[in-house]
User: Fold this.
Amino acid sequence: GRRGAGWLLIYNRHICNLCLYACFAVPPRVSDEFRNVTIAFNSTFTKECYLRGALQVSVNWTKDGVLLSKNNTLVIRKATFKDKGNYKCTAKNDYGKANSSFWIDVTVSPQIIEPPINQSVTEGNSVNFSCRASGVPTPTLVWVFNNADLPSGINQFNHEEKSFLEFLSVTKGMEGTYKCEAKNKANTTISSATLRVYGKCNENDDNDDNDDDADRDDDADDNHDDDDDVTLTLN
Assistant:
């Protein structure tokens, strides 16, 4: 037999003594995996529109309502921010029509362009850390201390792509490693720096040093007095 446009022709009826013939009208079926996607800047993205359909299926791809292509497979090469938008696939034949849409977002992984730097400070003094990152969308900056939350007594300020840590009065417990984590939907990037805290000078040691200096001054005065008591006799 031969299948045509709505016709079934049987050339030899003796092929089958008892046969059941049926004609199925199959409308297009589009991919059921259409979901919002995120693609990296300068990457390649491909997506097929319909999975099956009877007879010839025509396809239209649109972006934000504007016709892009009539091919079944959508191809985006070297994606740029102009490729961001709402995409819709429509497939139709004589038996029906199906469509599906999804959103494409184009991203750039975070990069830390001003990392925090190592710091050394005496206990009780102040110090600051800063971190700056770029990316699309703008990364969220999070600080971690020794792989845990920040200790109390530290103020964090964020402004656009930059984050600051302010230590008004450093304690020994603040000594350790501080990580700046830059996060967006594309990726996470980390940079770290170390804070070293020196103890204060002991006041008692200072007093002892002063006492030693005073004793040395007294000894010097005594020696000077002894020199005054020396009498020279000349014959």
User: Anything to note?
Assistant: Residues 203-229 form the longest helix (27 residues). Residues 1-5, 230-235 have pLDDT under 50 and may be disordered.
